[in-house]
């Protein structure tokens, strides 16, 4: 099977390509424009390093907004659409134009391509940010109330997918990720920042009071769920939460990192949370039923692996 993965140089995308290539029957086309964003281009190039020499992997450095789909999609069986501009805090003001271009217009253009050159499955990577503030474990049928322009851009992508499903029968599956972490995590995300700050003995900068909680999903568990969609029956047209094994507050997570790194941090609270919910909590029963998904990695185990990865990245 030939599989197209957009955003292949990203945090989740690079892990997904590696996971898909474990099956000797798969060929993977990784597409990424390496658009400037929160994570430096050099880091994303490093994410690709282990893939570039693989005989069943082809990398295309091309922009979704400009690519000629007739040269690629006729040979593709399935599409994982992970490309996009991430991040809540950077999605305000004039910067939202970038989110419109790369999260909305690029998605619509890819859907148009798949309408012309049909695929067996189109898997769209969405986010828990589409839910906004919710009480308790949130199900996929909850009313969506995004709190940030980023969340709006990803929810718009979901609606576009549903439009093309309704009108053209595109075989879409929507996955909503909950705070994915682990090796190769983006440099702007909290755990990466905390680990870097602790390793360099810099102040630990926290938005809000640190009591906000998240459903943390280790990248290996997340990618296992994403890959399983390919062969799962009865998932076309579904929206599925992908959450983690445990939840924790920011302060609880920081205390765990301090213990793992054997460093005491100097915490500085730098402003209120803005455009983010107080808590996230995924109801993953649908993923358990449709994908046989059972997250395996504890927060301690996952953070230990991310700490080891960042020690190597920063030569510490």
Q: Please, what is the oligomeric state? A: single chain
Which strand-content bin applies to the residues? Answer: 15-25%
Within the largest sheet, what's the order of strands? 3-2-1-4-5-6-10
Helix content: 25-40%
Number of domains: 1
CATH architecture: 3-Layer(aba) Sandwich
Mean pLDDT over the residues: 96
From the spread of the alpha carbons, the general shape counts as globular
Major sheet description:
7 strands, parallel
Distance separating the two termini: 41 Å
Structural class: alpha/beta
Number of helices: 9
What does this structure look like?
The chain has one domain: Rossmann fold (3-Layer(aba) Sandwich), CATH 3.40.50.720. Helices cover 36% and strands 18% of the residues. It has helices spanning 11-20, 41-48, 96-116, 149-168, 190-199, 219-228, 250-261, 285-291, 299-313, and strands at residues 2-6, 27-31, 57-60, 78-81, 121-127, 172-177, 180-181, 204-207, 213-218, 239-242, 246-249, 267-271. A seven-stranded parallel beta sheet has the order 3-2-1-4-5-6-10, with helices on both faces. A three-stranded mixed beta sheet has the order 7-9-11. Strands 8-12 form a two-stranded parallel ribbon. Strand 2, helix 2 (41-48) and strand 3 (57-60) form a beta-alpha-beta unit. Helix 5 (190-199) packs across helix 9 (299-313). It is globular. It starts with a strand and ends with a helix.
């Amino acid at each position: 099977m030939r599989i197209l993965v957009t955003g292949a140089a990203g945090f989740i995308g690079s892990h997904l390509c590696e996971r898909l290539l474990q099956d000797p029957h798969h060929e993977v086309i990784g597409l990424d424009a390496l658009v400037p964003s929160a994570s430096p281009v050099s880091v994303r190039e490093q994410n690709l390093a282990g893939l570039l020499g693989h005989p069943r992997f082809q990398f295309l450095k091309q922009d979704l907004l400009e690519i000629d789909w007739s040269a690629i999609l006729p040979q593709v069986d399935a599409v994982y659409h992970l490309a996009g501009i991430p991040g809540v805090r950077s999605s305000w003001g004039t910067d939202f134009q970038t989110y419109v271009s790369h999260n909305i217009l690029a998605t619509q253009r890819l859907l148009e391509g798949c309408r012309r050159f049909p695929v067996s499955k189109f898997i769209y990577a969405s986010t828990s940010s589409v839910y906004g503030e919710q009480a308790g474990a949130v199900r996929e049928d909850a009313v969506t109330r995004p709190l940030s322009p980023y969340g709006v851009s990803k929810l718009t992508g979901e609606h576009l997918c549903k439009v093309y499903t309704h009108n053209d029968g595109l075989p879409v599956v929507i996955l909503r990720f909950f705070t994915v972490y682990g090796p190769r995590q983006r440099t702007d995300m909290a755990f990466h920042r905390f680990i870097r700050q602790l390793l360099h003995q810099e102040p630990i900068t926290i938005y809000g009071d640190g009591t906000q909680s998240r459903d943390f999903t280790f990248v290996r568990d997340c990618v296992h769920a994403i890959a399983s969609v390919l062969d799962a029956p009865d998932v076309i047209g579904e929206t599925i939460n992908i959450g983690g094994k445990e939840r924790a507050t920011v302060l609880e997570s920081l205390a765990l990192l301090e213990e793992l790194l054997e460093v005491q941090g100097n915490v500085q609270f730098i402003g209120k949370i803005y455009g983010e919910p107080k808590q996230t909590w995924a109801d993953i029963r649908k993923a358990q039923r449709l994908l046989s998904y059972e997250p395996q990695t504890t927060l301690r185990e996952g953070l230990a692996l991310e700490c080891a990865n960042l020690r190597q990245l920063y030569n510490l």
